[in-house]
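Hello again, I could really use a second opinion on something today. I've been staring at a protein lately and its backbone has me curious. Please have a think about how the structure follows from the sequence. I owe you a coffee for this, so here goes:
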Amino acid sequence: MSGRILLLLVVGVTMVFAESLQSDYIDELFRIERYSQRFSNDVKEDAKLDVPELIIKYKYPLEVHEVTTPDGYILQMHRIPHGRDKNNVPGTKRPVVFLMHGLLCSSADWIISGPGSAFGYILVEEGFDVWMGNARGNYYSRNHVELNPDNTDFWDFSWDEIGNIDLPIMIDYALAVTGNEKIHYVGHSQGSTAFLVLCSLRPEYNDKIISMHAFSPVAFMAHNESPVLNAIAPFANSIKILASLIGIGEILPNTLLLTWAGQIFCKDHAITQEICSNILFAVGGWNDAHLNTTMIPVIFGHTPAGSSVKQFAHYGQSIASKEFRRYDHGIVKNIRLYGRRSPPKYNLSNIVVPIFFYYSDNDPLSQSKDVYRLYEELGSESKVLLPLPSFGHLDYLWGIDVKPLLYDTVIQLMGVVEDQ
């Protein structure tokens, strides 16, 4: 991990901090005159600070925790235990909210919009104890007890392992530290996918969840409109094999392939090619109506945060099969792992927690027909569809008006469920 290293002691926890993962790229971006003149120095700074440094900058309490999974991945979690301006008495027991990021992202998603706008800060001011997870392989969870990220063996996972292995150990740890018996869970995109994997494969975790809030839920993908994922879908299995043969396990942030994808898939949009070339927008789409464009450098500073080829391949398999099922390793390995030639479907009837779906037809990755099918196949009797017609895939995180349109509703619903 490159960058300036700082050793600090915050809330009794020793931490090593570094600059944001795309700090060098941000420096290059601001050498372009049209960018350097457009954005404030504060935005530039936030683009270069990592998550712990950002939280400290805005004078919120911070704890950094690490857990090691049974298969050796070292995962970092960021906790904001209480508010800065309200609900700010330390040591008070509060309801826990666990926030889980999407594909290519990290815990940064929940705080880079800043105080008053970012969901992580809003939640602690409203009296919640906020824990932000980081899946294996992203910038904050890029360590293993034996494997090196430069080795393809490190990247031998999809979101199946994130849901089946990473989530339970992070949730259990948060519950142990806080002494709470249950949490509220919020997942964006892949964060919702991983939750569905968790509770379908390990239904005992239903008992540890008060409510689940799925921002842009992704499970069934028959009607997916992401051009990048649709292009991958017919070749999902061969892409993983080819990547392994040439020694690539990670989706890299800066390659000619991604630049080409941005130029092809964004060429009709009235935005610059630099924005188009960011894989996050190439996959999730662009929505001029809601996205706060002054946030662009900060988003670029923190994403893409890392992903395995298999995570993309697994979504490609979902599109091709039109089913929500476990990773297809091929006949031989499927028989060894699953006892059958093809991967089994996730048993959604096992999921019985109260679930709230926030979705939009303007979202290429989470189309309403696919969300309706998910809604119908879930075992939970407490499930609610909450459409947000104009939202794009990334507006759930960084939309200009996301607080009144989404976050206030989520907090209100958490309170209702908590009181039942």
Remarks:
- The first helix runs from residue 23 to 29.
- The chain has 18 helices and eleven strands.
- Residues 81 and 91 are 9 Å apart (CA to CA).
- The first strand starts at residue 6 and ends at 10.
